[in-house]
Amino acid sequence: MFKSKGLARQHQQNRLKKLVADHPDKKAAEEKQLHQKLFASSFWQQANHVALTHAMAFEVATEPIIQRAWQEGKFVYLAKVEANRALSFRLVTEKTPLVQSGKLGLWEPTSEVTIAKDSLDLVIVPALAFDFVSHHRLGFGGGYYDRFLFEYEGASVGLVLEEQSGLTWPVDQHDQAVQYLIK
């Protein structure tokens, strides 16, 4: 067990970046399986309004999820970090420009059309690691998803690469669990 989340985050970012650098084919194969399991799930099939992030290279790819959602006629919303340390989700289409912003260099939508938390059917939650017992996630340290997930009643899911499991870290009182994990 890591003594601090900071040490666990550093370890996981290095671990995931090494996966991308050394074993891109392994990562791509795992992602394909995760996507297939997601698309076969009842919570995906029932969702009309899907929220997620535009993934960084070392995260589970979300572009195939976005494309599939559009093909199925679902509404897609990408995360945008707000000034008050909150997270909003903005409607995106194939024509919505994305801009790189923030200290992490996240790609965010330029769209001004937001959706209320209670109108989302499914949120695909990013993380550096997931705990399969508690369903807690190790995020990037801003608490954006913990604040968002607090009192969110729709389905939340984490897509878990092999390198994102088998790790323990301190869980704080404000940390929010994800409803479903797909591995």
UniProtKB/TrEMBL annotation:
Keywords: ATP-binding, Ligase, Magnesium, Metal-binding, Nucleotide-binding
A Pfam family annotated for this UniProt entry: 5-FTHF_cyc-lig
EC number of this enzyme: 6.3.3.2
Cofactor: Mg(2+)
Any one GO molecular function term: 5-formyltetrahydrofolate cyclo-ligase activity
InterPro entries per UniProt: FTHF_cligase (IPR002698), FTHF_cligase-like_sf (IPR024185), NagB/RpiA_transferase-like (IPR037171)
Catalytic activity as recorded in UniProt: (6S)-5-formyl-5,6,7,8-tetrahydrofolate + ATP = (6R)-5,10-methenyltetrahydrofolate + ADP + phosphate
Gene3D superfamilies linked to this entry: NagB/RpiA/CoA transferase-like (3.40.50.10420)
NCBIfam families in UniProt: MTHFS_bact
Protein family: Belongs to the 5-formyltetrahydrofolate cyclo-ligase family.
Protein name: 5-formyltetrahydrofolate cyclo-ligase
